[in-house]
Amino acid sequence: TSHIEITKQPGIYAACVGDKTNNWVGNLVRLYADQHTTASDARRLAGWYLKDAGIPWLFHVLGNHDLWNRGDAILSLINDNTYYFADWDARVKLCASGQSWRVHCAHDFKGTSIWNRTHGPLRAAMLSGEADLYVCGHRHTFGTQTIEIEETGRVKHVVRTRGYKMHDHYAVVNGFTQGK
Fold it and tell me: Exposed, middle or buried, 125 (CB in 10 Å: 0-12/13-18/19+)?
């Protein structure tokens, strides 16, 4: 709830990079047995998060869990067309006080590296160069980086958000580290 309170400050808005619920599919459905919320509980929580928590949303990006099992249809019922929902990828221009910033937000960007958690958004920034800020999630890790594209002199910011999911059995067994 402390993060929700931050969004209620003047001039602060929120965006979501996807996966509002687990919405497991295929062999992953068995993971419902290891979590405390049911699928219907998760949908109710998502409804509260999207509509009733008082968060001033700019937009939502739908991630893989949002799209599985027609989850996008469920979220659209919760959303009631109040907010912009983008399928995996949103490109927006934010304007304030006579300035503007281009944001490219995706559930994930192509490319990974065991040495650089921001490799995907960094790759997007270096190859497309159209936005000032590149933001993604999906991998449950955090990283941020600022670079200058020397050819253009433009500064780019890249961010990978970790989200709120804590490690499950799969992550523990495979030795994935748990970030905060």
Answer: buried
Sequence-ordered strand ranges (E) for the chain: 14-16, 57-62, 84-87, 89-96, 99-106, 133-136, 143-149, 154-160
What CA–CA distance (Å, rounded) separates 7 from 117? 26
Q: For 122, left (φ over 0), alpha (ψ -120 to 50), or beta? A: alpha
Q: What is the pLDDT along the chain (180 residues), one digit of tens a residue?
A: 688 999 999 999 999 999 888 888 888 787 777 778 888 888 888 888 888 899 999 999 999 988 888 777 777 766 667 778 888 999 999 999 999 999 999 999 999 998 999 999 999 999 987 999 999 999 888 999 999 988 888 999 999 998 877 766 666 777 777 777
pTM of the predicted model as reported, rounded to 2 decimal places: 0.88
- Chain Cα centroid distance, residue 164: 11
DSSP string over 120-167: HHHHHHHHH---SEEEE-SSS--EEEEEEETTTTEEEEEEE---SPPP
Beta-carbon contacts of residue 131 (< 8 Å; ≥ 6 apart) = 91, 102, 103, 104, 125, 156
